[in-house]
Amino acid sequence: MNLKSARLTYSEPLIILTMWVAIFAAPLLMFSNDEFLYWDNVIRSLRTTIPFFLLFLFNHFVLIPLFLFKKREVPYLIAAILTIVVFSLTLYFMEAGGINNQPPPRPPGQGMQIGPGPGAHPPPQHRQNPFPYPPLVNTIIVSILILGFGAGIRMIVRWSVLEQEKNKLERENVQNQLAFLKNQVSPHFFMNTLNNIHALIDIDSEEAKTSIISLSKLMRHILYESEVDKIPLKKELEFLSNYIGLMKLRFSEKVKVDLQIPSIIPEKEIPPLLFISFLENAFKHGISYNSDSFINIDISIDNDMLMFSLTNSNHKKDKPEKASGIGIANSRKRLDLLFQENYTLKIEDHKTIYKLDLTIPL
Fold first, then answer.
1. Of 224, 161, 357, 183, the residue nearest 278 (C-alpha)
2. Do 191 and 233 reside in the same domain of the chain?
3. Which residues span the domain enclosing 95?
4. Which of 41, 62, 276, 318 is 20 to 30 A from 191, comparing alpha carbons?
5. Is residue 351 located within the same domain as residue 249?
6. What's residue 297's pLDDT?
7. Which tens digits make up the pLDDT trace of 80-111?
């Protein structure tokens, strides 16, 4: 249980204690006449209040845990009605039998009172019952109010605790999903890069060796430096530049790849590997060995907002290839988890041009 849940749990007995202290203290205010306090009336009031307190405890510790907490609302309602009926009838017959009747008036000076002395003030006259209902009806009404108040307090506190636990689990689930989506990048990226190096071995072995060194740097970034929630923006942009440089090795002069990044990079942090899936998609569908192709990447920063713009030629196959990697759909899901509604992603998929615009807060 976290700190907020513990506070909610501890607040419940405090609310209940405050309520019943006020109820038990009410006779001290109601049955006083100026500076006098007639204890006979106070004791009689307490005798009436204590049964309702016991009813509250029975509902709080027996009926609610046994029925409401187990989502058995109808049995709880039936049990509560039966409890109120039995309780009210019991009090009614006890009153009829004289158990809680007012004791006979005592001679002046012999009553239990606090004051300057006998005869200073006459004992207060019995007030007419302000409730125009029979005592049995009054008892039923008060019982319903007490059970309703008790059930409301318990359910509100329990609901609040469950909401806190639910939010905690949701946050943990988001973190697990983000880790899963991020780790999915590695296999796809390594597969593409190794294919590039394999193609270079027969063409230029020295260039292939250089590519292996570049690949080791990229692997270090993915396997180690990206194992945090956020990394410096400068490192992520360096990773993109190295990745693009490595991908360009396998293509001819017909493929134009242009990367524009700010000359001054602010000291900001972003989630790692945020743009790699978009670049992979551009190299996968934007490059053709038979036609002129291009990929343009423009990254700009304005007012703590980062704009990532990607435009590439569109050479999608007539028969769609089997999906691999995290893809655009999973990238969008990751953005949802990271930024909720605080980002924009616009995609225009035309016949010959594919355009993507992403804006995220820094």
1. 357
2. yes
3. 3-103+131-178
4. 318
5. yes
6. 94
7. 899 999 988 888 888 776 544 445 454 444 44
